[in-house]
Amino acid sequence: MVAEDEEHSEDEEEGEGGELDIREVAKKAPEWSAGVIVYNNSAYPIAKSKYAEGEFYFSTSWRAVKKGIRGELVVLKDGSTHKYRVKRKGDKYIQVVLL
């Protein structure tokens, strides 16, 4: 089990392997979500805003799809990966814009 964790870390550092791994995590996101966001070492479901074009939102109170993931990216269900910028932190949701 330790060897698997070490191999996983190497994949994440290489970038491409880490992205492939996070794409698998995105497939496990709830049906209602647009994909996942890696934030504070956890992958949370992310939803597309109905009100602001090109914006997404999520909440750290939502159940994480996976914990222990490093990085700062969004993976949409179509498999595309994006960096993001936090636009606003509210009481309930964190709004982000894809870069």
What does the secondary structure layout of this molecule look like, with pairings?
Layout: H1 2-14, H2 16-27, E1 35-39, E2 42-48, E3 55-58, E4 66-67, E5 74-76, E6 81-82, E7 84-89, E8 94-98
3D architecture notes:
The protein has two helices and eight strands; from the N terminus they run ααββββββββ. It is α+β, with helices and mostly antiparallel strands and 99 residues long. Strands 1, 2, 3, 4, 5, 6, 7 and 8 form an eight-stranded antiparallel β-sheet that branches. The model is unreliable at 1-17 (pLDDT under 50).
Task: Put the structure in a nutshell.
Helix 1 crosses helix 2.
Core attributes:
2 helices, 25% helix
What percent of residues adopt helix (DSSP H or I)? 25-40%
Which parts are unreliable, with pLDDT below 50 for 5 consecutive residues or more?
1-17
Estimated radius of gyration: 13 Å
Secondary structure tally: strands: 8
In terms of DSSP E residues, the strand content is 25-35%
Distance between termini?
36 Å
The structural class is: alpha+beta
Tell me the overall shape: globular
Average per-residue pLDDT, rounded, comes to: 82
How does the major sheet shape up? 8 strands, antiparallel
Give the SSE string: HHEEEEEEEE
Number of helices: 2
